[in-house]
Amino acid sequence: MKIPSEKIDEIRNATDIVELISSFTQLKKRGKNFVGLCPFHSEKTPSFTVSAERQMYHCFGCGAGGNVFTFIMEFEKISFGEAVKILAERAGISLPIYSKADEERVSENEQLYALCREAAIFYHKCLMETKEGKFAYEYFRNRGFKDETIKTFGLGYSPNSWDALYTTGLEKKFDVLLMEKAGLIKKRDDGTYHDYFHGRAMFPIFTSTGRVVGFGARKLFEDDPLGKYINSPETPIFNKSRLLYGLYQAKDAIREKGNVLLVEGYADVISLYQSGFKNVVASSGTALTVDQIRLITRYTKKIILIYDSDSAGSKATLRGMDLILQNDCDVKIAVLAEGDDPDSSVRRIGSEGFNKLLEDSISFVDFIARSFEKEGKKKTPESETEMVRAIVNTISNIKDEIKRNFYIRYVAEKYHLFESTLHRELEKLIQKKRYPLQNLDESVPHTDSEREIPRKPEQNLPSVEKDLLNAMFLGGENVVKWVDENLDKSLITNAKVKELIEMLIDRIKKGKNIEPASIIDSIENNNDKIFLTELIFSNYTLSKRWDERGIDIEKADPFVVVSDAVQLLKKKALEQKIEKNQQLLKDASVRGENIIKYLELHQNLINQLKELEKQQKKEG
């Protein structure tokens, strides 16, 4: 069942593109538009622009562009129909009920998302509604988790049998192969299947948009031979190194607070969240990765690390600090009491005490110094040299030269050293590392939400044709009708421009919307979408006459622009005819033929050109 165009328009109009994209990357107002770092490719200088007026976005770096639907499609790697569904749910708009045939056409990834969601519901019901689940429920309650918190994070229980979810899936007619592909069941050597998780406390893992993609599972029974925590296997929709546990629940608080608390485990996130520290996420079962840091930078560049106080936690903190600094973020470390982790700490000292601990967070310089002291190294020239060299090595990860200099000055004052000495050490370390930033970007694979920078689809677009089309979009129905009546379409040389002009004219005749944000939904070719968004976000280029006439480019009347453009196209066509005729005249003269007809045509074309120029002066 096809979604009616009126319903698509309703969803688009109900979704503010600035608000939507702001939940994925930080945007700042610049003039009438908003700018930020592109969520589709790595960059240091913002080239991603969002227009509230046109409800469209365009990246001048990688070429990505479109409306609210194309943004969700590209970011989540889903189909148009799936993007419509997500935005409809977000806007609280009901969609027509799909038939079974329609469901079969939904993409495989969407089916995997649906299966993971069903599994999460199943595990949650097993926790809250079954006798067996009471054991797991008591486990969560003993951890201090309230019912509301259990519901917020969708916590669950996988029954301690081998086929509870598998059997339920068969009853609901789920595709067994897709259940396996989603990491929910596993195939035995004899061809039969069993549940991937059984007898464990379940932690659903969400994307930043709230879709379940996998699970973390905590051991509950002593005879369970597997590790204390296990995760879903990697699937087409689940890669734990590219996800942050708790981000879906935390993202609004991260924006509000301006920073993020980064912990290691599921229980750490849940305990802190429940205690009022809602801007908390976890790397969950994996060492902190570049992709996870990039995910954080969509919301903030200020990170407070809160890892366990043991030696493994300290080592993880040191690794995390370096990676965070390499990716142009600020980092502080909240130091926990000996033997504590974030979960036990907040339960022991309470919200007020933990807030004080956050306020007392220290710099990476002081953390490295504390680490050396914790290792019991005596203050000897050798140990202090090793410590300072370790600090300078971490400073060398900072891309911002000014910031590096401030840290060098701080270390010089703290340890009574000459800045010049530290700078020489710093320069040696920087030379060993392959900076600047673009080298880091080249060495790190792009995430699923990133893209190769494509070649520009249009290299030879005449500026006059670009301005004409842009003004037609801006001017609306009356301008499009004027162009239809006054422009000889054969004067247009660019095929894409001609196609779009004809589309605009046709839509106006049929009483359809000609907003670019609406039209882009009907364009299938990605290069054509890029072409349209580049056009919409470009400035007029026919500015020489406007400057002479004192016209503000930003406020130029679309009628003036199309009139100028049509005149210039006519002039260009006449000049080309004159040039061609002169060549024919020259050739005929060389052959000794009669050249009267060429002379007459030349004079006629010159008169037309003069008349056109006279008309332009009169209008100017």
Q: Could you outline the blueprint of secondary structure elements for this entry?
A:
Blueprint: H1 5-14, H2 17-22, E1 28-30, E2 33-36, E3 48-51, E4 56-59, E5 65-66, H3 68-76, H4 80-91, H5 100-104, H6 108-129, H7 133-142, H8 147-152, E6 156-158, H9 164-171, H10 176-181, E7 185-187, E8 193-195, E9 200-206, E10 212-219, E11 229-231, H11 247-257, E12 260-263, H12 266-274, E13 280-282, H13 290-296, E14 302-305, H14 311-326, E15 330-333, H15 342-359, H16 364-374, H17 381-395, H18 401-415, H19 419-432, H20 437-443, H21 463-475, H22 477-486, H23 495-509, H24 516-519, H25 526-536, H26 544-549, H27 558-591, H28 596-619
Parallel strand pairs: 12-13, 12-14, 14-15
Antiparallel strand pairs: 1-2, 2-3, 3-4, 4-5, 6-9, 7-8, 9-10, 10-11
Helix pairs in contact: 1-4, 3-4, 6-7, 12-15, 16-17, 17-18, 17-19, 21-22, 21-23, 21-27, 22-23, 22-27, 27-28
Architecture overview:
The protein has 620 residues and is of the alpha+beta class. Helix content is 54%, strand content 10%. It has a five-stranded antiparallel beta sheet with strand order 1-2-3-4-5, sandwiched between helices. A hairpin with a 5-residue loop joins strand 7 and strand 8.
